[in-house]
Specification:
The protein is of the alpha/beta class. Helix content is 25%, strand content 26%. It has helices at residues 30-42, 50-56, 65-73, 112-119, 134-143, 155-163, and strands at residues 4-11, 45-49, 81-85, 102-106, 123-126, 148-151, 169-174, 199-208, 211-220. The chain has a nine-stranded mixed β-sheet with strand order 5-4-3-2-6-1-7-9-8. A hairpin with a 2-residue loop joins strand 8 (199-208) and strand 9 (211-220). The two termini are 22 Å apart. The model has no long low-confidence stretch (mean pLDDT 97). Bound molecules: NADP nicotinamide-adenine-dinucleotide phosphate (NAP). NADP nicotinamide-adenine-dinucleotide phosphate is lined by residues 9-10, 17-18, 22, 24, 27, 48-52, 55-56, 85-88, 90, 131-132, 134, 152-157, 160, 185, 189.
Length: 223
């Protein structure tokens, strides 16, 4: 058993989610930022890869005070559980995401001193030998009562989850810029597939601000 998992990402018209410098780029406008805040407020947990933490240092909290209040009125925490997938415990102890209601998932190979330092700031969960075992992590989350996980990137984590068949839906906001650069991260990177591609079913596509919001259901890989 695992929670419902959905990826949300903003990408340029040429499919890039960042630049060759891997710096955060404003791809969408205020309408999309508001939509993402609502997605966050609905989710039980938000997950990112350590690459995103190192590049962007996101907080991943809900921005709107009204949405936070709604969550509390529903008996939930102000913000969803925030999770970093980080096999080697590379998350800096000063990372904005750390604190209450956060979790860093590491693998057994993570250096003890790093795990110890992080444990003083945040819950650290060891799950997997050399890499974080994503299926086990999701099963652990489900056991804690987490029923929905919003994955906010980046490109490597997106691929790993999709390849393992652990994603139910993908939301992509396609913004009105071209970034280019063969080394710039795209929506899904990782090792890639050469056959048996992951099939999607279009759920919805609509203009939002100056770009397009596309919602795909993930059907999975053909045998
Ligand atoms: N436009 C957007 O919406 C958006 C959103 C998010 C991020 N971004 C951009 O995306 C870029 C970061 O993406 P990224 O691909 O470099 O990093 P990432 O996907 O955020 O993190 C990847 C890292 O996660 C760790 N990991 C742990 N267990 C894993 C597993 N089982 N499978 C795969 N990875 C695992 C790996 O590091 P270890 O081996 O050390 O564990 C891996 O290198 C940044 O440039 C950021 O700005 C854009």
């Amino acid at each position: 058993m695992r929670p419902y998992v959905f990826i949300n990402s903003a990408m340029s018209a040429d499919g890039k989610i960042s630049t060759v410098a891997r710096e955060q780029v404003r791809i969408s406008g205020k309408e999309d930022l508001q939509r993402v805040d609502e997605l966050k407020a609905d989710a039980d947990a938000i997950m990112v890869g350590v690459g995103t933490v190192l590049a962007d240092d996101p907080k991943l909290t809900v921005k709107s005070a009204a949405l936070k209040r709604n969550r509390v009125a529903q008996g939930r925490s102000e913000d969803p559980l925030r999770i970093v997938v980080d096999s080697k415990a590379r998350t800096p102890v000063t990372a904005a995401i750390l604190g209450r209601n956060a979790l860093v998932a590491v693998a057994q190979q993570a250096p003890c001193d790093r795990v110890e330092a992080l444990s003083k700031k945040v819950e650290v969960l060891v799950v997997g030998k050399s890499k974080v075992d994503l299926a086990k992590l999701l099963a652990n989350l489900k056991d804690r009562g987490v029923n929905s996980v919003l994955v906010e990137g980046g490109a490597t984590l997106n691929f790993a989850l999709l390849e393992l068949g652990l994603v139910d839906e993908v939301y992509t906001y396609v913004g009105d810029i071209i970034i280019g650069g063969s080394a710039a991260p795209t929506l899904v990177d990782g090792a890639g597939l050469t056959s048996h591609f992951i099939n999607l079913k279009l759920q919805d596509a609509s203009q939002l601000g100056k770009g397009v919001l596309i919602r795909w259901a993930v059907l999975g890989r053909p045998l």
